UniProtKB/TrEMBL annotation:
The gene is flgI. This is Flagellar P-ring protein. GO terms for cellular component: bacterial-type flagellum basal body, distal rod, P ring; outer membrane-bounded periplasmic space. The basal body constitutes a major portion of the flagellar organelle and consists of four rings (L,P,S, and M) mounted on a central rod. GO terms for molecular function: structural molecule activity. Keywords: Bacterial flagellum, Cell projection, Cilium, Flagellum, Periplasm, Signal. Belongs to the FlgI family. One of its GO terms (biological process) is bacterial-type flagellum-dependent cell motility. Residues 1-22 form the signal peptide.
């Protein structure tokens, strides 16, 4: 009952009417600058110093192979030796090299076990090269792993919270190679909208031309605006982008309803509208109870104990809701407020919205996760 009340309060808050106001957003929060992007890095390494929670060498032979290679590079010959340590684990190391990262800078890395290790808590990642898609080494990672979970075990039971087989190393990789990208030599740039829209792209073009002059920006399509750097009159593309990215623009958003069936969450846009429609909702509840009965033979009589099944099945029709005909142009927030007032559960509310969409009365993009 408390959970249902909290959900109803949440929907009530989301459905409150919001005064129309200019919601201006910086251009840097609406677009990606062509060429100004990060690059994914990946490496294969070894975590040591685990408290008996590492890989089983027999189940993960690649752990023994990489451990032998590391020891041989350090001058320790282990050829033909039999060793079965439980304090090492083979891991994949991933990172994102940000744009304009310079040699000597540090970036965060994520470490994930690939063998049968139980936990990476307290482990230390040994020097691991990180490669990009071109096969070149751009960073080297090393440091203490901060795992994102905890585990405890006893003789007959164990408990795990979170994911102890994955963790992070803040500033755990040092950049060794820079991405070759000469921003200063570009004569034109493209602004790629994160959510393509004709109206938003036109407003970005108009806002830039209002600040720099006509002909600086040109909308090519709903997802791209071309910027002529030379026409801005700035000393370099970096100066132009530094000024453009802080220009305020009011984006145009599609009418969209997003529902999450697992958590019962409903998120809607301000412009969602519903046509004339009538809604009636009810439900059935089926209860089945099993009460098996054990029948035993009489004393001193031959026979066996028999379990006789006993099943009770009940079918009840729950009282549903019946709404009056919804007026044309009614906003979805008003419908949600009415359903909340009737005490409709969030999951039932999702079913009602699906039915309204199927009837063609919900004028919005309907996204179900």
């Amino acid at each position: 009952m408390i959970r249902r009340l909290r959900a109803s309060l949440l929907f009530l808050l989301l459905s409150l009417p919001i005064a129309a106001s200019a919601n201006s957003i910086r251009i840097k929060d609406l677009v990606e600058f062509d060429g100004v992007r990060g690059n994914d890095l990946v490496g294969y390494g070894l975590v040591v110093g685990l408290n008996g929670t590492g890989d089983g060498i027999r189940n993960a032979p690649f752990t023994e192979e990489i451990m032998s290679n590391i020891l041989e590079r350090l001058g320790v010959n282990v050829t033909g030796e039999q060793f079965r340590p439980k304090n090492v684990a083979a891991v994949f190391v991933t990172a994102s090299l940000p744009p304009f990262a310079r040699a000597g800078g540090k970036i965060d890395v994520t470490v994930s076990a690939i063998g049968d290790a139980k936990s990476l808590l307290g482990g230390t990642l040994i020097m691991t090269p990180l490669n990009a898609a071109d096969g070149q080494i751009y960073a080297v990672a090393q440091g203490t792993v901060i795992a994102g979970g905890a585990t405890a075990a006893g003789e007959a039971a164990s408990v795990v919270q979170g994911v102890p087989t994955a963790g992070v190393i803040p500033a755990g990789a040092r950049v060794e190679r820079e991405i070759e990208f000469d921003l200063g030599s570009l004569k034109s740039l493209r602004l790629a909208l994160r959510e393509p829209d004709f109206t938003t792209a036109a407003r970005i073009e108009q806002a830039i031309n209002s600040n720099f002059g006509r002909g600086v920006a040109l909308m090519l399509d709903p997802g791209t605006v071309r910027l002529s750097v030379g026409a801005t009159g700035m000393r370099s593309p970096a100066h132009a982008l530094g000024r453009i990215e802080n220009i305020l623009v009011t984006p145009e958003r599609k009418a969209r309803v997003v529902v999450d069936q697992r958590s019962g969450t409903i998120v809607m846009g301000e412009g969602v509208r519903i046509s004339r429609v009538a809604v009636s909702q009810g439900g059935l509840t089926l209860r089945i109870r099993e009460t098996p009965l054990a029948v035993q033979p009489n004393p001193f009589a031959e026979g066996e104990t028999v379990v006789v099944p006993r099943t009770q099945a009940e079918l009840e029709e729950e009282p549903g809701i019946s709404l009056a005909e919804i007026r044309p142009g009614t906003s979805l927030s008003e419908v949600i407020a009415g359903l909340n007032a009737l005490g409709v559960a969030p999951r039932d509310m999702i079913d009602i919205l699906k039915s309204i969409k199927a009837a063609g009365a919900l004028h919005a993009e309907f996204v179900v996760n």
